[in-house]
Design a protein that fits this description.
Blueprint: H1 3-23, E1 39-45, H2 55-66, E2 70-76, H3 79-92, E3 98-101, H4 106-112, H5 118-124, E4 136-138, E5 141-151, E6 154-157, H6 158-163, H7 173-186, E7 190-192, H8 202-214, E8 220-221, E9 224-225, H9 231-246, H10 258-266, E10 270-274, H11 280-286, E11 292-295, E12 308-318, H12 325-336, H13 338-348, E13 351-352, H14 361-364, H15 366-377, E14 379-381, H16 390-405, H17 411-427
Parallel strand pairs: 1-2, 1-3, 7-10, 12-14
Antiparallel strand pairs: 3-12, 4-5, 5-12, 5-13, 6-10, 6-11, 8-9
Helix pairs in contact: 1-3, 7-9, 8-9, 8-16, 16-17
Length: about 425
């Protein structure tokens, strides 16, 4: 019943071994005390590379100073590498003590028994859960706490848009398509970029379904797959294919990953992308001269309802295999404290996981004030969060979308095949 999941996990184990060997040495320190009797916690995450240099380490130093006897070893890497490492650790029982989590991973890890029940941990520690803005629960128990929340708006290269003769930000799909095509015709820059690599298929969540959600659409009905006959999804497929066939989308879309998208936008090779606010620091560090605007994802023509923004979280969890559960929760509690959480979200330009935290960027940076305004007036939607085998769902849809874009099957055939795959995954 779980053959597909375990096959995927097994494949990722091999891919993660080299990364794990270089960064974690097989996650051995998480199960042993360091010299002098100190407990050393491994904290695996992709956050450090996306934060200002040294800032996460500084917070860990503060935690260590407040908790004598506990040391934190940061295991850091890009999102894709971290995912491979965490998935491999979950399969092998060598997961780091504390792990950064994407909500799409949680259901699978809980079924494997890889994550600690944080509801129990919060009760044991007498932690006030009412301060949490959200919790990711499976069957009533919390397994992930969102530390920082990121909306996925549209990023627009101002200079590229102006060069293409576009004077206003696109607000609907017709305007967006016209802008993307104009950009592509004006030079060597692509209009839009759509990463659809199936090894890391979060492009379906962030870059495709975001257009469905932006206009009030859904891929589910009563919590079950609803792709066949779904006009909202079909319309977005046709919209994307038109851009793909016209050459407005960056080349290599079937093998591009999220980092490729960010790199190309940062380097001025693409005019528009849908992306996380978490990458703003990275973009500014790598190209301080790039002028860009953050805007709402364009809606379907004629749509008058409330807009929506996809979102993702820097979630945190504790490994079941950790021998230092109490110490691990102390780190979780530290990160969720009002002042520390506000600091993390200020550094990451994210919205806080603690209801009392107020990140300073809201008032200090015009671009992020604009993003916060979007956050306040938009619905936040991510239908993949908490779904069973969420990445498999993305991957199976990705496979069919690629066939459709390549002209190998119709939209109806693609949706029928994806619906069949999703139905099997839900049943499993």
């Amino acid at each position: 019943m779980r053959k597909k999941v375990w096959a995927s996990l097994a494949a990722m184990v091999a891919a993660a071994l080299a990364f794990s060997a270089c960064t974690a040495s097989g996650s051995t320190t998480s199960t042993s005390a360091s010299a002098g009797g100190n407990v050393t916690l491994e904290f695996a995450q992709w956050w450090e590379p996306e934060l200002p240099a040294g800032s996460l380490r500084t917070l860990m130093d503060q935690f260590e100073a407040a908790n004598p006897g506990i040391k934190v070893k940061l295991i850091s890497g890009p999102y894709a590498s971290t995912k491979e490492q965490v998935v491999a650790g979950a399969a092998a029982g060598t997961m780091s003590d504390v792990v950064g989590l994407d909500g799409a991973w949680v259901s699978d890890f809980v079924k494997q028994g890889s994550l600690t029940n944080l509801s129990t941990a919060m009760t044991d520690a007498k932690f006030d859960a009412s301060q949490l803005a959200a919790q990711v629960k499976i069957k009533g128990s919390t397994y992930m706490i969102p530390v920082a929340n990121f909306v996925y708006p549209m990023f627009v290269n101002n200079d590229v848009l102006t060069k293409a003769g576009i004077s206003a930000l696109p607000t609907n799909r017709t305007e967006f398509a016209a802008a993307a095509k104009a950009i592509a015709k004006s030079g060597t820059t692509s209009g839009w970029i759509l990463p659809l690599d199936t090894a890391t298929p979060n492009g379906i969540q962030n870059d495709f379904m975001s257009w469905v959600w932006a206009s009030g659409g859904s891929m589910l009905k009563d919590g079950q797959p609803n792709l066949v006959g779904n006009q909202g999804v079909k319309d977005v497929m046709a919209f994307v294919k038109d851009l793909y066939d016209s050459g407005a989308i960056a080349k290599g879309t079937f093998t591009l990953k999220e980092q490729d998208k960010v790199n190309q936008f940062t380097n001025g090779q693409v005019g528009m992308m849908v992306d996380s606010l978490a990458h703003v620091n990275l973009i500014r560090q790598q190209n301080a001269n790039l002028k860009f605007t953050v805007a709402a994802i364009p809606t379907a023509d004629g749509y008058t309802g409330k807009g929506a923004l996809p979102y993702a979280s820097w979630g945190i969890g504790i490994a079941n295999n950790s021998k230092h559960q109490a110490e691990a929760f102390k780190l979780v509690s530290f990160l969720m404290g009002k002042d520390v959480n506000a600091k993390i979200c200020s550094l990451a330009h994210a919205f806080p996981g603690n209801t009392g935290a107020v990140p300073d960027f809201v008032n200090n940076d015009p671009a992020f004030k604009q993003a916060f305004d979007l956050f306040q007036k938009s619905n936040l939607t991510n239908e993949f969060t908490g779904l069973p085998v969420a990445e498999d769902l993305m991957r199976s849809f990705d496979n069919e979308l690629q066939k459709y874009l390549a002209g190998k099957e119709s939209a109806d055939e693609a949706l029928t095949a994806a619906q069949a795959a999703w139905t099997k995954s839900f049943a499993a």
